[in-house]
Amino acid sequence: MLWNRKSEKKGEKLEGPKEVPPPFQKYLVREKKLAPELAKLLRAVQRKRTSDGGRYDFRIFDEADAKARKMEVTDYASLDGCPDLILYEGWCDEGANQIMLEEKKKVNWDTQIFSQAEIQRQIEALREPGSRVFFYTNRGGKHGGPLGMGAVVVELNPGYPGRNEKKYNIFTADVIDMQPVDQGQKFFGSNNPKRIASWVKSLHDKRAFSS
Predict the structure, then answer these.
(1) 40, 52, 120, 182 - which has most CB atoms within 10 Å?
(2) pLDDT at position 182, please?
(3) DSSP letters along 130-180, please?
């Protein structure tokens, strides 16, 4: 698999992912209008140019997105085979104190954070059996999405009111390209939209973790 390959050149060792260096964070905030708290959560890999000793190539990615896609980023070259993970790509020249980054993938980071009452209203608005609504999460065991930790999906149970069936099925899911992956993993069932909304709200807030 390409993302496990260490380098194109035999014997060359590339550094693993690290926090985005402060000068790049400032560049992302100033030039790309990225929120400062988000710039700190992204990850960067670098490669020194052999033909130009003062320049380094950089790629910036979201580790949560990599985990959602089940891809392991080990170094700069490992992203050659998964361009969908690269958010920004460019270079820096330490001697000239220059940075240049190109946005490779547009991501909508401005995700609305709903109140518990708003979450409950959206759940209660489900009418058709099997219809769903989802909410991004910043905590939990899943990955991806703008809040970093996947999503909670609430479904109006098509089997309700069958025997031992609850009105709502609640799933947790990884998120890729802003959408929950497949059906997700069923977490519990409930007849109480207020209880569901309270639980969802405990996981639905501003992003706090890198992955």
Answers:
(1) 120
(2) 84
(3) T-EEEEE-SSSS--BSTTSB-EEEEEE-TTTTSTT--SEEEEEE-EETTEE
